[in-house]
């Protein structure tokens, strides 16, 4: 199964602070998606982090005109604070399960930064 795009769940989503980064990377299409087996945390810096654990994270599968070029842009953006690592995950979409890249964090790193659980698993609107 080919990697379809990037699973976005936080500040890259439409209406969020850094959605322009995704547009600049060549965002072509967005599809609702869910990452199971992960938990969402809110960081004091004002953005979320997903870590492995019981629960699910809601977001979108972003597809790009040129995925490799988009990853170069997104890798620079996501590496800025050293928290995230890019990994391949499986996300559920209305069309079925798809493979996607996701920028995830380690639970210990999130705890060191003061992350608090975000029980809804949905970052949009910043309501737990």
Automatic annotation (TrEMBL):
<protein>
    <recommendedName>
        <fullName>Gamma-glutamylcyclotransferase AIG2-like domain-containing protein</fullName>
    </recommendedName>
</protein>
<feature type="domain" description="Gamma-glutamylcyclotransferase AIG2-like">
    <location>
        <begin position="6"/>
        <end position="124"/>
    </location>
</feature>
<dbReference type="InterPro" id="IPR013024">
    <property type="entry name" value="GGCT-like"/>
</dbReference>
<dbReference type="InterPro" id="IPR036568">
    <property type="entry name" value="GGCT-like_sf"/>
</dbReference>
<dbReference type="InterPro" id="IPR009288">
    <property type="entry name" value="AIG2-like_dom"/>
</dbReference>
<dbReference type="Pfam" id="PF06094">
    <property type="entry name" value="GGACT"/>
</dbReference>
